[in-house]
Design a protein that fits this description.
Elements: H1 8-16, H2 22-53, H3 63-88, H4 93-117, H5 125-141
Length: 143
């Protein structure tokens, strides 16, 4: 029925079937590309985890862990929205799903490059300083 989840091969078949409605074809292609970008992102998650799990020097903050959770959830929500927009035919599913992937992948590769190849590089160092100052300001506010 309509509520079941299709296999990848079934999505390709539906997406290429000219006898299906344009809406069904768009939804099939959008779901197909949604699945591909979700799996492709899983390959980059270890790099993100490594880059954000290492705190700046002399810091005990878990800001990187928090930031990584926010980034991954936000990216997933963007993908869900892009799948919907692509499924309705408003934007081509390839563009709607792969453009955010490429941007997020570039960000992940950049933060990994900073932590791995720049001596003393801390991709979240500025955020750490901001979080520390905001914490001190909040403490002073409630004294």
């Amino acid at each position: 029925g309509k509520d079941r989840e299709y296999l990848i091969t079934e999505l390709i078949q539906i997406g290429g079937d000219a006898q299906k409605s344009a809406l069904d074809r768009n939804r099939a292609w959008a779901n197909f590309h949604f699945r591909l970008v979700e799996v492709a992102m899983m390959l980059l998650l270890p790099l993100l985890a490594l880059a954000l799990a290492i705190p700046p020097k002399r810091s005990t903050s878990a800001l990187g862990v928090f930031l990584s959770i926010v980034m991954v959830v936000t990216y997933h929500k963007i993908n869900e929205y892009a799948e919907g927009v692509g499924g309705m035919g408003i934007v081509d599913p390839v563009i709607a799903l792969w453009l955010p992937f490429l941007l997020f992948a570039a960000l992940i590769l950049w933060v990994y490059h900073i932590i791995a190849h720049v001596p003393g590089g801390q991709p979240i160092g500025a955020l750490e300083v901001f979080a520390t100052k905001a914490g001190k300001w909040t403490k002073r506010l409630f004294r």
